[in-house]
Amino acid sequence: MKIFIELNREQEIAHNVCRSSIVRRNSSANVEPLELAKLKEDKMYVRENNDVHPKFFIPHIMEYQGWALYCKDDMIFLQDIKDLFSFCDNKYAVMVVKHEGYANNNNIILWNCEHPANKWLNLDTVNYVTDPDRLEKFSWLTSDQIGVLHYEWNWLVNKYAPLPEGVPKALEFVDCGPWRNENKHVQYGLYWENERHEYIKSSIGPRQPHKFENLPDDINTIIDKMIEYRMDSRNEYYKTTKEDLIKEIETNLAPDRVFAVDSEFRYARKGNIYDPMLENFIIGAGGQLTTWDMIENDKSPVVIRGIAKRKQIHSCWETGRDFYYIDTGYFGNGKRKLYHRITKNHLQNIYPVVHRPRDRLSATNWRPCKFRGGSNILICPPSAKVMKFFDLDLDQWMEQTLTTIKQYTDRPIVIRLKQSRSARMHDDTLAMALSKDVHCLVTFNSIAATEALLLGKPAFTLGPNAAGALSLQDLSKIEKPYIPSLDEVEEWAAHLAYSQFTEQEMRSGYAWSILNESSNIPSSGSEEQE
C-alpha cells in the first residue's frame, strides 16, 4: 500500500502525526512525503509558478503502476488504511470523497495509476497545462471514471456535526489544525492530540537499558527464583528451595548451544572484560564466552564478529560447522551503529528473499527512491583485508574489472576508495557520490551495493553480496543494468531488515529466534567462495 502525504515544512508536525496515525495501525504501509520542493529538485516540476499541486505527479512517480493514496497533511486516520484500499475498483481512474457544498473533493484521492486515462498525466501535460483548475476538477476524466468513497474517510472537522456514536474513520482539520494554539479545543481535537502523543513516544530514542533489562525468558525465570528464595528462604510463601534454584539453572541454560569466540582480550580499556556485542548475543542465545583455541576441535556452533577472523570462518566452512557472523548493518545506521547484520554461515544474507512484514523496514525510516539514469560508472573497490579473506589480489581485481568494463562501454569511470567512517557519515557520503550523475555502481561484496539500490541506482556485484538478488554480475551488460521495480526493492529491503539487529535485540534472544527460523541453511563455504 503506497501512500503519499502532502509535506508543508511550515507545519511539518501535521505531516508527521498523519503518517504516524497510518503506520501505527498498519506497519506494512509504505508512506512517502509529497513535497513540491523535492519535485523541483528532481527536475520533475519545472513550472515557473507553484499553481499545480504535486498530487498530479503521483501516477508518473508510480510509473503508472498499481494503486496509491494521496492525502493532505491536515488529516489523521483512526482506522487501518487497508480498509480504505479495499474499495479500490479498477474501473475507476480515481476514487474521491465528494462533499456537497464544499470544495474539498480531492484532498484524499485513491489513484489507479494503471488506468489508461491517467496516462494523460505525463510530465509535459502537468507541467505545461494552461489551466491548472482543469486538473483540480479531474477534467481529463469522464464521470464514470471517478469513483466515490464514503465521507467518513474524509470527515471535515467543523464542517460536519459530530457523529452520534463512534468516530469517523479519517479526520481532516480544514483551516482548524489543532497544532495551532488557537485551535487546541477544536472538535475532535483530542483525537489529533492523542495521535501527536503516540508520534512523540515513537520518536524518542531508546534510553540506555539496565543490565537486567532485555534478558531472555530463561534467565528472567532464574532471577525470579533467586529473588523468591532470598525473600523467603524458609519456604513459607514461595516454596522455592535452594535445590529448586540449582535445578532451574541446570534445566533452563544450555551453555553448549553456541560459543562466542574472540582471540583477543582488548576490551579492558573500555571497561569491559569481553567484546560486549558478543556478550549480548550469547546472553540471548543461551551460550558461553570462550576463545577459538578452546573449542577449535568442537562441533558446537560459534559466533564470530568481523572479517579479521578469517581462520575461524574458513575452518567452519571446511568442516561444515555452523557459525553466526556479526558485522555492520545493511542500512538504517546514522552517526552511531544501531543495526548489526547477523548471518548464519555466510558474511552476508545471500539466501533467497523471504517475504517479511514491513515493521522493521519502517523503523529504519527507509523511503523508496525512483531509479534515475546517469553517465558515470562508480566503482567501490573492496579493501585489501576483504581480498585477503577471499584469497584474491586487490590490484589484479581492479585491473581485471576496469579492463572488462572498458570492453563494453566508453562511459567515464569514477573510483571511490573506502573513506573513514567520519567521512562516510558527514563529508563524503556514498549518497553524495551517487548523486553525481552515476549510471551504476560496481563493487565486490561491499554493502555499498545495497545503499545504491536503496537510493535508486543499479548495481553490479562481483562477489557474494546481499544486493546480488537485485543486481547483475555480468559486466558485459554494463550498458543495460538490471532496474528492479520499487516493489521488488521494498520486498528485498524488508527481507534484509530481518537480517540486522540492535544489541538489545541480541540480548533479549529476539535475534537468535529469527536467525534460527530456518534450520535447513547449509554450513558450506562453496557459495561464499565462488
CATH topology of the largest domain: Spore Coat Polysaccharide Biosynthesis Protein SpsA, Chain A
Kindly report the name of the CATH homologous superfamily of the largest domain: Spore Coat Polysaccharide Biosynthesis Protein SpsA, Chain A
Instruction: Write out the strand line-up for the largest beta sheet, numbering strands in chain order.
Output: 2-1-3-6-5-7
Supply the helix-strand structural class: alpha/beta
Overall description:
The protein is α/β, with parallel strands linked by helices. The protein has 3 domains: 2-203, Spore Coat Polysaccharide Biosynthesis Protein SpsA, Chain A (Alpha-Beta Complex), CATH 3.90.550.10; 217-362, no CATH class; 365-485, Rossmann fold (3-Layer(aba) Sandwich), CATH 3.40.50. The chain contains 22 helices and 19 strands. The strands form 4 sheets. A 6-stranded mixed sheet has the order 2-1-3-6-5-7. Strand 12, helix 12 and strand 13 (323-328) form a beta-alpha-beta unit. Helix 1 crosses helix 7 (189-203) and helix 8 (217-231) packs antiparallel against helix 9. The longest helix has 15 residues, at 189-203. The chain starts with a strand and ends with a helix.
Task: List strands and helices in order, with pairings.
Layout: E1 2-6, H1 12-23, E2 30-34, H2 36-41, H3 58-61, E3 67-71, E4 75-77, H4 81-85, E5 94-97, E6 108-112, H5 123-128, H6 132-136, E7 146-149, E8 155-156, E9 170-172, H7 189-203, H8 217-231, H9 242-252, E10 259-261, H10 276-285, E11 288-290, H11 292-295, E12 302-305, H12 310-319, E13 323-328, E14 340-344, H13 359-363, E15 376-380, H14 384-389, H15 394-408, E16 413-415, H16 421-427, H17 430-434, E17 438-443, H18 448-454, E18 459-461, H19 486-497, E19 500-501, H20 503-508, H21 510-515, H22 526-529
Parallel strand pairs: 1-2, 1-3, 5-7, 8-9, 10-11, 10-12, 12-13, 15-16, 15-17, 17-18
Antiparallel strand pairs: 3-6, 4-9, 5-6, 13-14, 14-19
Helix pairs in contact: 1-7, 8-9
